[in-house]
């Protein structure tokens, strides 16, 4: 019934006589070591097609269907190796850690990033990490994008993990980001409130939607304005994937350096002298999105007290601000 055609894809021909079954349930039974959560994430990412078309998890599989599933739902190394990678630990006790993740580091192993991740570093640092996730994501309560720097909380036991995850679910976590975006905002303070959905034209991107997706709320405040950019403080009410990046790009003010959402192109100041060379030099300093998760606050699951942690801006961010000011 199923055949591994490369290391990256599975081809599954549904045989005659097969009773109707949800696609995600069907694939769990067809692919060794796959879990329903992995299957559903791959389906949401558009990595599973039925008869050549992207499918939904609740699609009813029928005899004659041809299913192609890409590797993220196929087996991957579950025994993540500890690696001696330096960690910037802002806080640590017996129950949790707060880590300042550098830009360029992925939170946990995934397709094309099995080593050099935060999890690899954590496993070298401690043997105490929660196990509520699958084996490839011990301790990981939440994530920030690979090229975003800043604070993450890591759980050392399942109780702590569950209590922190509950706070994220209720949107009671305090999360403050700093960013440099193109242009100037219409107001010094404001709220951005839209639905965010996966882009239909590019499954790796997200977009503002009037009718689909999930509600996303971001509060912003202008810290300083420059010639063609602004330095912002942003607070998340919700925590959707790429939320700040999508909200600012939706306003025509993408984050400076954000290749995915157009922040590596000139949006304002095209009439300024030597703007192309100036922007080119700035992009060499900041070849990623200028976004940093600066502050993180939550109720400690064991002490029941609110704790707040802050981090310095990374060096590339500081240098970018220095150049913009000058």
From TrEMBL:
Give UniProt keywords alphabetically.
Answer: Isomerase, RNA-binding
Q: Which reaction does it catalyse?
A: a uridine in RNA = a pseudouridine in RNA
Catalytic residues of the enzyme: 145
Highest taxon of the lineage: Bacteria
UniProt cross-references to SMART domains, sorted A to Z? S4
Coiled-coil segments: none
The protein's matches in InterPro entries, at most eight in alphabetical order, are given as: PsdUridine_synth_cat_dom_sf, PsdUridine_synth_RluA-like_CS, PsdUridine_synth_RluC/D, PsdUridine_synth_RsuA/RluA, RluA_PseudoU_synthase, S4_RNA-bd, S4_RNA-bd_sf
EC number(s) from the headed UniProt entry? 5.4.99.-
* Domain RNA-binding S4 intervals: 21-86
Q: Give any single GO term for biological process.
A: enzyme-directed rRNA pseudouridine synthesis
- What GO molecular function annotations does the UniProt record carry, in alphabetical order? RNA binding; rRNA pseudouridine synthase activity
Q: Does the keyword Isomerase apply?
A: yes
The role this protein plays is: Responsible for synthesis of pseudouridine from uracil.
Give the family per the record.
Belongs to the pseudouridine synthase RluA family.
Q: What PANTHER family has UniProt attached to this entry?
A: MITOCHONDRIAL RNA PSEUDOURIDINE SYNTHASE, RIBOSOMAL LARGE SUBUNIT PSEUDOURIDINE SYNTHASE D
The protein's name: Pseudouridine synthase
This protein's species is: Ignavibacterium album (strain DSM 19864 / JCM 16511 / NBRC 101810 / Mat9-16)
What phylogenetic lineage does the species belong to?
A: Bacteria, Pseudomonadati, Ignavibacteriota, Ignavibacteria, Ignavibacteriales
Write the gene name: rluD
């Amino acid at each position: 019934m199923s055949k591994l055609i490369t290391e990256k894809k599975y081809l599954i021909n549904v045989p005659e006589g097969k009773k109707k079954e949800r696609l995600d349930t069907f694939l769990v039974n067809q692919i060794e070591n796959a879990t329903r959560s992995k299957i559903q994430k791959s389906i949401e990412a558009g990595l599973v097609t039925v008869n050549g078309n992207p499918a939904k998890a609740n699609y009813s599989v029928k005899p004659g269907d041809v299913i192609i599933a890409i590797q993220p739902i196929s087996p991957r190394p579950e025994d993540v190796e500890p690696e001696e990678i330096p960690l910037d630990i802002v806080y640590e006790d017996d129950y949790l850690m707060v880590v300042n993740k550098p830009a360029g580091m992925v939170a946990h192993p995934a397709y094309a990033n099995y080593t050099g991740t935060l999890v690899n570093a954590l496993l070298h640092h401690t043997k105490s990490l929660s196990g509520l996730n699958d084996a490839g994501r011990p301790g990981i309560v939440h994530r920030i994008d690979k090229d975003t720097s800043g604070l993450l909380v890591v759980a050392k036991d399942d109780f702590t993990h569950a209590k922190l995850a509950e706070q994220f679910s209720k949107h009671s976590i305090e999360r403050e980001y700093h960013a440099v975006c193109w242009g100037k905002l219409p107001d010094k303070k404001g709220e951005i409130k839209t639905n965010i959905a996966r882009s239909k034209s590019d499954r790796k991107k997200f977009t503002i939607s009037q009718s689909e997706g999930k509600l996303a709320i971001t509060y912003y405040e202008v810290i300083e304005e420059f010639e063609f950019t602004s330095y912002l403080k942003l607070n998340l009410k919700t925590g959707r994937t790429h939320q700040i990046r999508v909200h600012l790009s939706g306003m025509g003010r993408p984050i400076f350096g954000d290749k995915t959402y157009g922040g590596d192109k000139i949006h304002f100041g095209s009439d300024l002298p030597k703007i192309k060379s100036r922007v080119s030099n700035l992009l060499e300093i900041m070849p990623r999105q200028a976004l940093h998760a600066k502050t993180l606050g939550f109720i400690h699951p064991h002490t029941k007290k609110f704790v707040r942690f802050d981090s310095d801006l990374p060096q590339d961010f500081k240098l970018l601000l220095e150049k913009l000011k000058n």
